[in-house]
């Protein structure tokens, strides 16, 4: 099982993005990737062709209209299963561009691997030769956080938990996107902003469970940080002291 990692956002989101290339305008910053399968495929093989067909299908036909899509291409050992999810506030155009770019980057970061996942700020794309649909992904997960802290971590952590717990219930209770954003006043001039989202191939009960676990991990990795997120294969949560949705 892959270990969870906590990564400081010391360079800032824009700098992180520019470390990859200038596609951040339509993908959001590059967050990370995992080549989780040790199995490999040969170039120009049926698996390679099916993977390319799946990526094209996800980016052009399936994902952009709704922000989520999954599918399988091929049969037997050549079958490829994959899905893509865009953040709930991302436009159709940026969703399509992000999924397209993410698919290209998976080829670059995980060449010839039969299973991999990649995250950008606007979307994630995942594929595998194993049918993973409907199962919570517990292995592919990491944390990002702002290197700056707050003056009262204990009180601040409680407010973070309060907001994200509310958003977990709202997201898992929704019938469409399994997505929620919100804010909470924590002082005269300070507002805490949050986001919670799940992959739409899991149930609402599993979504709530996944989000609650993600929230519970934040104090362990990111206690008192001014901003942090748990980025996962099945769900993600994020909080900041500035508005970040739709930016």
Task: Describe the model.
The protein has 247 residues and is of the alpha+beta class. It has helices at residues 12-20, 24-27, 46-62, 92-109, 153-173, 204-222, and strands spanning 6-8, 30-34, 68-73, 80-86, 115-120, 123-128, 141-145, 179-185, 191-198, 228-232, 235-240. A six-stranded mixed β-sheet has the order 1-7-10-11-9-8. Strands 2-5-6-4-3 form a five-stranded antiparallel β-sheet. The protein starts with 5 loop residues before the first strand and ends in a 7-residue tail after the last strand.
| Count of helix runs | 6
The termini sit apart by: 34 Å
How many separate domains make up the residues? 2
CATH class membership of the largest domain: Alpha Beta
Instruction: Kindly provide the radius of gyration, computed on alpha-carbon positions and rounded to a whole number of angstroms.
Output: 18 Å
- Name the assembly state: single chain
The CATH superfamily label of the largest domain reads: Gnk2 domain, C-X8-C-X2-C motif
Q: Roughly what percent helix?
A: 25-40%
Shape: elongated
> Judging by the overall fold, what is the CATH architecture of the largest domain?
2-Layer Sandwich
Tell me the total number of β-strands: 11
Q: How big a fraction of the residues is strand?
A: 25-35%
* Biggest beta-sheet profile: 6 strands, mixed
Name the structural class.
alpha+beta
Q: What fold name goes in the CATH topology slot of the largest domain?
A: Killer Toxin P4, Chain A
In the predicted model, the low-confidence regions spanning at least 5 consecutive residues are 1-22
Q: Widest sheet: strand order? A: 1-7-10-11-9-8
What's the SSE pattern?
EHHEHEEHEEEHEEHEE
